[in-house]
Design a protein that fits this description.
The structure is a single chain. 47% of the residues lie in helices and 16% in strands. It is α+β, with helices and mostly antiparallel strands. It has four domains: 3-144, HprK N-terminal domain-like (Udp-n-acetylmuramoylalanyl-d-glutamate--2,6- Diaminopimelate Ligase, Chain: A, domain 1, 3-Layer(aba) Sandwich); 163-295, Beta-Lactamase (2-Layer Sandwich), CATH 3.30.450.40; 330-445, 2-Layer Sandwich (Alpha-Beta Plaits), CATH 3.30.70; 453-547, no CATH class. It has a five-stranded mixed β-sheet. Strand 12 (361-366) and strand 13 (369-377) form a beta hairpin. It is rod-shaped and about 135 Å long. Residues 1-21 and 261-270 have low confidence and may be disordered.
Length: 548
């Protein structure tokens, strides 16, 4: 087992080579005092991203016994054996112990790298570097060791900052979304929280879009083997760690390699993660565990609610993002139609529990309002499904009001579901107090009375009522008359005086007298169809104003 995986699983940071590297062979070769020796990479270029743990100067024929791995070995070549078999053993021992590279100076003994040495290094994949000019090895060790120790100090300081940041999140009771957002910001990597069913519950993107991160999520996630520790796994080389408490596993967090060029201090090849990334991921898992224990809503429910809110308010960056996020949560997105339903209720989470098993997405969008997104097959009628949902909601809360939006027929674009939610919201605003016998309300139920109820707080509507029939209302209040009910009976009867008299339990003569008084007070001609319409609208508006 190599150092990379061993350290990733333990979460420890013994040296910069733990998971990624801070100082590589290529970095050392680029140092000015080293570059002055005109270094040439003879073989092993693919190993230049190897981390350098230390620098070791040696003129021994068996230097490997003094090494621990990760060292850059410097030699003048003076003691190098001439026997090819001994040269192979020399290189084998360096490779077996894990030396980072072998650097030989071509000044004193050799003027070109011995063929046997080149062949042996090529066979074992050990980078072999030659120096055409004299280099002060002691100065090289001083500079490189200072860089390594400085990086250690910076790494320790950065690790402490990471611990402090997550401790602060935990102490203020941060939710899982806050924890994941902090992890992405601190690491610069996309992080995804998934449940045991490989559904992506939270995705905080960095260096790529949410759509890029979550496309075909379940298949890609199942290709990443499970494990008990923090490790780099799977064909895409994700850094993953489980989230669990007292042996009960809830899911795992995955840190995805960035799609952008590697950041300074990160290798261009191999694992794209450094020790700090491991620390961030481990602390993320711990903070998520605590968040799950202190927040009552499950991760799945929070994920549904967040996606519903983003769809309803069109907060996603693109239609692809909405579709990919929904698919990553297990919502059907192919050959599917959507219908949005809003339930105004005081039952809250109890209603969510009742609706959860058979809806695509369900969650509390705001206090007193539950949102539902139904996913229907292309040929499946929506009314029977909505009716069943409505009866379920009314069983939980008999006073619940169920409003249905328009059907989304663009089966390839989930983003259009926002239109259905907006329509459902308009229906909900128009439902009159007391409702009706219908289990649910839809756009076709919005008539003039419902429209006026929606506009009841508009001062223009209120002013219209006062201008049209205000004097009549004042006359009834001042003189204890019933002119307003008489006018309503007359207008409801479409100007039929006989019907109006019967409905008001009045004689025809009394009706004529009252209508004449109304015409005088309002300065109008009740025989005018347009004027009757204006007055009828005013009466309806007055009625809805008195409702609420």
């Amino acid at each position: 087992m190599d150092d990379e995986h061993r350290t990733a699983r333990s979460g420890e940071q013994e040296h910069p080579a733990a998971v990624g590297s801070v100082l590589t062979v290529a970095d050392v070769l680029a140092l000015p005092l080293f570059a002055a020796g005109l270094p040439t990479v003879v073989t092993g270029e693919s190993g230049l991203d190897r981390p350098v743990r230390w620098v070791h100067i040696t003129e021994l024929t068996d230097p490997a016994s003094f090494l621990k791995g990760g060292e850059l070995v410097l030699t003048t070549g003076m003691p190098l054996p001439t026997d090819p078999s001994l040269v192979r053993r020399y290189v084998d021992e360096l490779a077996d112990v894990g030396a980072a590279a072998l650097v030989i100076e071509l000044v004193r003994r050799f003027h070109r790298a011995p063929d046997a040495l080149v062949r042996a290094c090529r066979t074992r994949g050990l980078p072999l570097v030659t120096l055409a000019k004299d280099v002060n090895f002691l100065e090289v060790t001083q500079v490189v060791h200072a860089l390594i120790l400085g990086n250690h100090a910076e790494a320790m300081q950065r690790t402490q900052q990471i611990h402090d940041a997550f401790t602060a999140l935990t102490l203020r009771g941060a939710g899982p979304e806050d924890v994941m957002r902090a992890a992405a910001e601190m690491s610069g990597h996309t992080v995804v929280l998934e449940n045991l069913a490989h559904q992506a519950l939270i995705c905080e993107a960095a260096g790529r879009t949410v759509a890029e991160a979550l496309t075909d999520w379940e298949r890609r996630s199942r290709a990443v083997p499970p494990g008990d520790d923090t490790d780099v796994r799977g064909p895409e080389r994700w850094l993953v760690t489980p989230v669990e408490y007292r042996g009960e596993r809830w899911g795992r967090v995955a840190m995805l390699p960035t799609l952008s060029p590697p950041a300074p201090g990160k290798p261009a090849h191999g694992t794209p993660f450094g020790p700090e990334d491991v620390t961030v991921l481990v602390r993320t898992a711990m903070a998520l565990t605590i968040a799950r224990l202190i927040h009552t809503a499950t991760w799945e429910r929070r994920a549904h609610r967040n996606l519903l809110q983003d769809i309803a308010e069109q907060r996603h960056r693109s239609p692809d993002e909405a579709r990919v996020r929904a698919a990553a949560l297990g919502v059907p997105t192919k050959d599917t139609r959507y219908v949005a339903v809003l339930v105004d209720t005081s039952a809250g989470s109890s209603l969510v529990d009742a609706l959860e098993p058979w809806t695509a997405l369900v969650g509390e969008l705001s206090p007193g309002r539950v949102g539902v997104l139904l996913a229907l097959r292309t040929a499946q009628p929506w009314r029977p499904v909505v009716e069943q949902l409505s009866h379920t909601a009314l069983d939980v809360d008999p006073s619940a009001v169920v409003s249905v939006g328009s059907e989304v027929t663009e089966v390839t674009d989930l983003a259009h579901a926002a239109r259905s939610f907006r329509a459902a919201a308009r229906v909900a605003e128009a439902v009159l107090p007391g409702g009706s016998d219908k289990p649910f309300h839809e756009l076709s139920d919005i008539g003039l009375r419902q429209l006026l109820y929606t506009l009841r707080e508009d001062v223009r509507v209120q002013d219209y009522v006062e201008r049209q029939i205000g004097r009549l209302v004042e006359h009834d209040v001042r003189h204890h008359t019933d002119l307003l009910p008489t006018l309503r009976h007359y207008l409801d009867a479409a100007g039929n005086k006989t019907t109006a008299a019967r409905r008001g339990d009045l004689s025809r003569q009394t009706l004529y007298q009252r209508l004449a008084t109304i015409e005088r007070l309002l300065d109008c001609d009740l025989e005018s169809g347009e004027r009757r319409t204006e007055l009828h609208v005013a009466l309806m508006a007055l009625g809805v104003l008195r409702l609420g």
